[in-house]
Specification:
The protein has 201 residues and is α/β, with parallel strands linked by helices. The protein has a single domain, classed as HUPs (Rossmann fold), CATH 3.40.50. The chain contains six helices and six strands; from the N terminus they run αββαβαβαβαβα.
Amino acid sequence: MTGRALTIGLALLAAPQAYARLRSAGDRHRPDSEALRPADAALVLGARVWPDGRPSRFLRERVETAATLYHRGLVPRLVLTGAGSNREGLDETEAMARTALGLGVPQEALVLDPSGHDTRASARNALHALGLRSVIVCTQEFHLPRAMWLCASVGLESQGAHPELLARQHTAIGYARELPATWKAALEIARDSLAPHRAPR
């Protein structure tokens, strides 16, 4: 492959992620930012749970971010969305709920969505099953542009809140994985826009 072809290929690979970042610019913040606006809920996206039931670092950071929003009065509830039974048979939402309770969020402010098996499903469930109109998506910064684009694609108004960026291997891997993941999201969004008569799954 020539240098020119490689450059074009990389540009095409990065195009959806670049668009997602551009469209969400100005709406992605740390949870203590004064730029965040009140919303119907914090949409906390699932991530890995360890075999003993403890949340992974990424998952704990997402719940901590949402708890900060709750205690600031920006959201009245946390929607904890993830797989009720992941590949290891573990419940991501239950681990998230335990973490939120430990951070001082009351039980009545927690809504569990165990059918949020991916970001797109979480966005659809928030809109159609829970009747939300606006959310603050809580996840790592690398994940936010795609997550917010998917929320917008189903008609959900979204902002994004992310924990502090830390230079570590898993963060770098996360940014790299977002390139093909955002392409997949772009194709799904395009497919749905061409078939508006189809009922959401």
